[in-house]
């Protein structure tokens, strides 16, 4: 089969690799029908995630059809159409029993495209298939469903829920890429009084308006003054970091009000300065997190009921064998206008 293989920082190739097989009783082998590219994949290619070794098949988001299952798989069978979660879960360890699947100690967590071969391939082996896949309703399209593999639960859980957004709040989202846009979309479930998007790219600020931000600010201007005027000099109740660079994180610490929340979603490859000499007295809550995907069933019900528009993130569509082109387009959003790309068989 063909797969996208990581060959060290800056190097990737769509090439022939062995087709995966069931190697553990809880495994499923899934034919990949639709897959997407994540900003985390770009971080891997930049060398920001050193745990990813050369030779690894990339990708952690897909929709597919189960081809075979191990003898311990009870709730899935060949022919089932499933969403493959970006997080695998053993279902038995202390963290999984508490719903914190991202911290699974039984061999799960973020494994696909990280410590085991991932989804950007014609076939993928999914560990713990019963707890790491979701059966898809017939009415839900592959393209819409694959948006629930990562970006929507990540933004909802790590951004909105960790950020404790409540009705009437002022919410600032720093970074209006796909993760930031998903945070804007899901923050609206809690009726904040204002959602402010901050980014450097005019195209992404325009997208933020379409996704529900009522105020947009170019980061090169003066977001501190805008937020101060909006909140009577208090600052934002919740600030969500959705970029993953030191400058954006440090901006978040200046935008938040006393007793406010900073929810960091971005994947950081470089150290950021935490000014505790300024923050310690302000009762700031800072959260980080890897998504658990515990919200995926709820989001999937919303999608099936027509309460969540997931296909709106998709700006480009390709065949699976056009993945090199898709990476080039996705990695240059300022030039291409790309938000999410979907590759299908």
UniProtKB/TrEMBL annotation:
Cofactor(s) needed: Zn(2+)
Domain of life of the native organism: Bacteria
GO molecular function: oxidoreductase activity; zinc ion binding
SMART domains linked to this entry: PKS_ER
Pfam families cross-referenced by the UniProt entry: ADH_N, ADH_zinc_N
Domain Enoyl reductase (ER) as annotated: residue spans: 8-343
Keyword set, alphabetical order: Metal-binding, Oxidoreductase, Zinc
Keyword Metal-binding (UniProt): yes
CDD domains (alphabetical): FDH_like_ADH2
Family: Belongs to the zinc-containing alcohol dehydrogenase family.
The protein, known as: Alcohol dehydrogenase
